[in-house]
Amino acid sequence: MDHDKIGCQAPPEGPTLCINNCGFFGSAATMNMCSKCHKDMMLKQEQAKLAASSIGNIINGSSSSSGNDLLVATTNVDIPVNSVEPKTISGQPLFGSGSEEIGEAKPKDGPKRCSSCNKRVGLTGFNCRCGNLFCTVHRYSDKHNCPFDYRTAGQDAIAKANPIVKAEKLDKI
User: Where in the numbering of this chain does the A20-type domain appear (predicted)?
Assistant: First the structure.
């Protein structure tokens, strides 16, 4: 079949590299750029539009800009596409060294251990109502001498769930 009659285009001769020379392949839909470079370029254009409109708002002193200001601002913005350079990150530590700490003690987030036998419990630890973490042997309150008063807690729960219902007294006839 002839491609002209159907309206299809012939496939491209081969894959084209990104015009920013980043090493990835580009496509005609993204102006011969890879998806990352195209997204970065669109983000830069959008930021430039916002910056130009905010500068126009400051100069004009108005809180809202008209469509004409945005059109004028977009025509004056010139963004170079081929200026993509790799950024290097400095090797400075993010946190201060141990000698520079000023009273802020970070709690050690080490392995979770049983409060009674100091056994590592990992994900299988049981939190008690007294606020401590225990292994499977010491998880019950009678096994670790729990200071939590279960009796008063139960009485309070029952009192909240069952309010006192008292009918009014009948008048004597």
Answer: 12-46
